Structure formats: structure tokens, C-alpha cells
UniProtKB/TrEMBL annotation:
It is an enzyme of class 2 (transferase). The keyword Transferase applies. It comes from the Bacteria. It holds the Pfam family Glyco_trans_1_4. It comes from Geomonas paludis. Gene3D superfamilies: Glycogen Phosphorylase B (3.40.50.2000). Its EC number is 2.4.-.-. One of its GO terms (molecular function) is glycosyltransferase activity. The keyword Glycosyltransferase applies. Residues 106-240 form the Glycosyltransferase subfamily 4-like N-terminal domain. This is Glycosyltransferase.
Length: 439
């Protein structure tokens, strides 16, 4: 067995989309000759449980939640200023967003002024110490750091340099050209972060991305970066997660969305489309429901109240992974809202494909639209086109009632490449190549 040291900010028992890819690689890489040790952070308060990967050694560096304290202080200051400020004549404050507009615009976070590259950088120094201890005990042949937090790559950079080991850097989300990223408030901060990105890219022995579009963007941004140093390894699904999971019994035509809405990823246009569909087609009354499984979203709650959808829309909150799969399997239609960027591909897309339920994707032309269209898995609608969303909801409801929608599910050949076992095999082959090149 060869040894791999994997560096990630999140790992089970902490839940969320960011943990799944890492946990599945840790689960299946041993099948291909790679023993895995993980350097991660302590889970947040309230998160309990054990890691169901007994073959994986986990090192947890304390996660210091300084940003939470700073945010509370900033929130108190904003509240005080709001109380002292008198509204000017003619100021609205009660205006509601127009059709297709998010209820809340993306806000600059306090971390944008304080931390580079992100607030997890406070964790990085301790993570470096834990990782160096793991190097001495585990004797890895390769260091592997994976986002979403760029701070993990700073840890990988330092540890790989000190230990003089080959280093793989994995971008599940882009760094500087992430479509969800808000530019830094000051030019010097932006330039510093860009130099950090360039430094880690040039130091890494290999770069892994989760979409071909991300590879294209990196090569365009850094012309000196050789194309053979970047590999596209997609996200996927684990068939073990679907074993013996009974579909949740819904008593109405049910549209399910799993995951979190944040910043530019909004549920508002879809909800406005649902409200328009109900107004156009009274026969849908009492026959249609929408279930959001994930972190409860205030913007969604406000839109539900504004559009009088209280009897239609339910936010069930965060549920266990297998429960979310049960919701997907029991739904008649799955809602997918990737957000901006033609390379943005949420990891849950592949689980949507795996349960073989029809998908309504609200996205521009890009990797998601091509995947849904090429596999015959559903329909694609412009994300801000409320009228077209309403038409799609009605059409999907009618197709379901006649059984026509079921004939457009993804084919087995297209799904095979997204099996987590196959993804681990590709990752292991890449690691083998790196070790052989150093031999």
C-alpha cells in the first residue's frame, strides 16, 4: 500500500456537499493500493458522530471560529447605526424585488476585509503542524490538498515544500475566477490573493479540477501552465448510498431541491415561476408541492410569504444524507439551480442523475445544461425567465400525469463514468503516475 496525506477543511462527521467527495475518495482509494490519512479541522459545535471509515487515520487541528465573534460585533454595530439613522423622505425600504430578481443582493462579508485567502487561514498554522506530524507517522508518498477553502492549499504548499513530496492541488471550486466570489475591497488585497493563487499553481506537481471549463479557465489565465499538468476528474455518486433507501412517499406532485441557496444562487425566480403556474392553472391547486432539503434560507422564506406559497413550499432543513436521497427518489421532479458560471457543476447533480428522476435545470448554457440535455435527464430553462419556468412546471406536471416524463431518464453508459469507484480509480492512477515520475 502507498500512502496519501489528504488535507481538507471539512470531513465527516461534518455534513454538507464539501465533505462527500473527500470522504468517498478516502473510502475507495484503498481499493486501488492507496492508504489514506486525513488532516482536517475539528467539527463545529453541535456536530457529533463518528467517521464510518475505520481504515482512515484522521488528524484534526482545532478550528478557531474568530470570524463568528467578529461578525457578532459587526452585527451589533450595524444594528446600533440603524437605530440612530433617520430614514430620509421618500426612502422606500418596503419595496419588493421584481420578477426574477433575488430578494437579497450578495453582501460583502466581514472576512473580505480581514482574512486572505479566507477566514479558514486562522486554522492553517495549526493544520501545518498536524500535517507535519502526520507526515512523520504516515510517511505519505503524495500530499493532496482540496478546496473549497483556498487555505487548505496554503497548508499543502508549506507541508509539501518542507517534506519535499509531490503535491496535488484539487480545485472543486475555482479560486480567483469563482463566479460566486466578491472581489476584495482594496486593490492591494486583490493583487496579493492573485499572487497566492499563482504561487500555489506553479508549485503544485499536478492540478485536479471538477469540470473541463475550469481547466480551460486556468490555462487561459496562466499560459505557462502545461495542459498535461491539469486533470479533469468529475464529482459523482456512490451506489452504496442508494442501497436499501426507500423513496419518500409524497402524496402530491412533488418538486425536490437538496442543498443550500446562497449569494447568487437563488430560489426566488423558481418560486415566482411556481406562483405564476398556479395562477395560470387552477387545477394545480392542492396537487403541487415543493420541498427544500438543506440549510433554511431566509430569502426563500421571505419569497414564500410574499408569493403566498405557504401551503405549497416546505423547508425541511438539514437532513441526513440518506434521507435526502429518499426525498430525491420519491420526488416527481428535481430542481437544479447551479448558479452563475458555465463551469459550475454542483456535486448533487450526479446524485440527481443516479436516482433517475427527471430534472428541471435553471441555468445558462454550460456544463450543467449540456449534461442534462445529452443524457436526456430533463429540461433546461433560463434561470431568470419566470414565464418559462412556469411553462416548464406545467409541462412537467402534465408529462408526469401521462407517464411521458419517465421515458427521458439518463442512460447507464452515461452514468458509469460518475461512479465514485471509477473516480477513485482515476485518482489512484494519477497518484501512481506522480510517484513513478519521482522514482
Amino acid at each position: 500500500m502507498k500512502n496519501l496525506l489528504l488535507i481538507t477543511i471539512v470531513f465527516p462527521p461534518e455534513a454538507g456537499g464539501g465533505t462527500i467527495r473527500v470522504a468517498k475518495n478516502a473510502k475507495y482509494l484503498p481499493c486501488h493500493g492507496w492508504s489514506v490519512a486525513v488532516v482536517t479541522s475539528t467539527p463545529p459545535k453541535g456536530v457529533t458522530g463518528t467517521v464510518e471509515l475505520p481504515q482512515v487515520r484522521v488528524y484534526r487541528a482545532p478550528r478557531l471560529e474568530v470570524i463568528g465573534l467578529l461578525s457578532k460585533c459587526a452585527g451589533a454595530l450595524r444594528t446600533l447605526l440603524a437605530l440612530l439613522r433617520r430614514p430620509r423622505s421618500g426612502e422606500g425600504g418596503g419595496q419588493r424585488p421584481g420578477p426574477g430578481q433575488p430578494a437579497v443582493a450578495p453582501r460583502r462579508r466581514l472576512a473580505d476585509y480581514v482574512f486572505i485567502p479566507d477566514d479558514k487561514v486562522i486554522w492553517a498554522p495549526l493544520a501545518c503542524l498536524w500535517a507535519l506530524c502526520a507526515v512523520l507517522r504516515h510517511r505519505p508518498g503524495v500530499i493532496y490538498s482540496t478546496s473549497p477553502s483556498p487555505s487548505t492549499h496554503l497548508v499543502g504548499y508549506l507541508v509539501a515544500s518542507v517534506a519535499r513530496l509531490p503535491w496535488v492541488i484539487e480545485f472543486r471550486d475555482p479560486w480567483i475566477f469563482n463566479p460566486f466570489r466578491v472581489p476584495r475591497p482594496y486593490g492591494w488585497m486583490e493583487r496579493l490573493e492573485q499572487r497566492l493563487e499563482e504561487r500555489v499553481l506553479r508549485r503544485a506537481d499536478h492540478v485536479v479540477v471538477t469540470s473541463e471549463e475550469y481547466k480551460r479557465d486556468f490555462l487561459a489565465r496562466y499560459p505557462g501552465l502545461a495542459a498535461d499538468r491539469i486533470s479533469f476528474i468529475p464529482n459523482g455518486f456512490d451506489l452504496d448510498d442508494f442501497a436499501e433507501v426507500a423513496p419518500h412517499p409524497f402524496d402530491r406532485f412533488t418538486i425536490v431541491h437538496t442543498g443550500t441557496f446562497y449569494e447568487a444562487r437563488s430560489s426566488v425566480p423558481f418560486l415566482e415561476g411556481v406562483a405564476l403556474a398556479l395562477s395560470r392553472e387552477p387545477r394545480l391547486a392542492g396537487q403541487l408541492q415543493v420541498v427544500f432539503a438543506g440549510v433554511r434560507d431566509e430569502t426563500t422564506a421571505a419569497a414564500v410569504e410574499r408569493l403566498s406559497l405557504q401551503g405549497v413550499v416546505t423547508q425541511v432543513g438539514v437532513v441526513p444524507h440518506r434521507q435526502s436521497i429518499a426525498y430525491l427518489a420519491g420526488a416527481q421532479l428535481l430542481l437544479l439551480v447551479p448558479g452563475p458560471g458555465d463551469g459550475t457543476m454542483p456535486g448533487k447533480t450526479y446524485e440527481y442523475l443516479a436516482v433517475r428522476r427527471p430534472i428541471l435545470a435553471l441555468c445558462e448554457e454550460g456544463v450543467v445544461s449540456r449534461l442534462v440535455t445529452s443524457t436526456g435527464s430533463g429540461c433546461v430553462v433560463e434561470p431568470e425567465d419566470v414565464a418559462a419556468i412556469a411553462d416548464a412546471v406545467i409541462a412537467c406536471y402534465d408529462a408526469r400525469s401521462t407517464g411521458a416524463l419517465e421515458r427521458d431518464v439518463a442512460c447507464e453508459a452515461a452514468l458509469a463514468q460518475f461512479d465514485r469507484r471509477e473516480i477513485a480509480r482515476k485518482t489512484a492512477r494519477l497518484l501512481d503516475t506522480l510517484v513513478a515520475g519521482r522514482g
